[in-house]
Amino acid sequence: GIEPVSSVAGEHTIDQTTRAGQGQRYVKDAVFFELLGVRSTTAIDHSPYEGAEIIHDLNTPVPSNLENIADFILDGSTLDNLFNPATALQSMARMLRPDGRFVSVNMASPHLNPYTLLTPFWFADYLALNKFDDYRIYVTLHGRRGELNVFTLNPADENSPVFPVTGLTGIVVFAEKGPDTTWHKIPSQRFYADQDTLREYGSAANLISQNDRPE
Description:
Blueprint: H1 29-35, E1 44-45, E2 54-55, E3 70-76, H2 85-95, E4 96-107, H3 120-129, E5 134-142, E6 148-152, E7 168-176, H4 195-209
Parallel strand pairs: 1-2, 3-4
Antiparallel strand pairs: 4-7, 5-6, 5-7
């Protein structure tokens, strides 16, 4: 339903900087967002090798001058390639402005050389305990012939059910920060959490279940 900005065109839109873009005809990330009407984009990376504007190792907390700088953050396989993904997730929560949104796409199986593997409830419990206004979490199962199955997380499940798969699996997270959202609270795995913590998880799950946004 979004009409692309037709004035964005030409060879300057082609990515000739990143490793994946070499010899390809990929559109630049900033150009892609510009087509959707975004006025300003900024990339963050641990080194300047691909032209990022902000150089910071997300294994360590971001400095205070990077707090509340973004209305939208896209994590495209960042957390699964870090030694300290929890630190990076906390930093992303700090970098978002209230009402800002976060989209995370990472590996959930040991395919394509991830450094760490993330689980649905690792995300869900952090987002619940820190009072994000909304979050939706999905597991993607990719077939050998390109087929795709998508499963949605039930955040009210207290038992973190086992999800055994042998194929390539991903995890996709949508989250929205609210005026009362925090970043510093550390969740407990539901199997070992106390009753007060489980009640907080359940309260967040109830808010999401009452939300009229579609999956």
